[in-house]
Amino acid sequence: MTEHSSRTTPPSHRGLRGFLRDNGLGLFFTVSFLLALFGQAIAGHADFNNQLATDGLQQISFGEYLTTSDFAVDVSENWQSEYLQFFLYVGVTVWLLQRGSPESKEMHKGGTESDEEQMVGPYAKDSSPKWAKAGGWRRAVYSNSLLLFMGTVFLLSWLVQSITGVAAHNEQRLRQLQAPLSWADYLGSADFWNRTLQNWQSELLAVASMAVLSIYLRQRGSPESKPVGAAHGATGVEG
Length: 239
Prior knowledge:
The chain is mainly alpha-helical. Helix content is 65%, strand content 0%. It folds into 2 domains: 1-67; 69-108 and 144-239, no CATH class.
């Protein structure tokens, strides 16, 4: 009896293991995000102080740097491009298809699909979310909630980028004894669109590469890939 107990995992340990297993993907990327953000802040602080030293100005502490428009615009311009990527991807994959790609629905399933296929209203299961069982505006909102969230975060982060971007840009202009720009003028400036488009093009290239390369290339065991032995023309099949 004693020997059996020593081999039994305590409930608390078993619960922790279960939590880590059930949430491993989200935890990995959350921790990786925080580490990358911290690393960006350290590198950005050093670069910012180097610029201040070049301009003959007093350097600032790490805490002060975290409240600057330079740090805020660098973070927000990356966030808006990432959420734009997912906003477009979630939206266009409803209607647009790619034969042979696991990132696409099957070729006959283009569109929003039927209530039965989506398990809403009278076709909802006992385990279905409450708003999937409801009708009217609640079902309409919930049916598009992922797209709405991605689009909202994209617009908000783009707004933050424009506000913090004009502050950072004007700070640089003042150092060079140039007149500051208004927010409206900054929206039409080369600096704003250079920051914006250099992020957009990289995100769109990454999505296009994933959608097309996954037709022909494989990663065994990944849900982002087809099974290794699946035909190149197999569409909407995940490994």
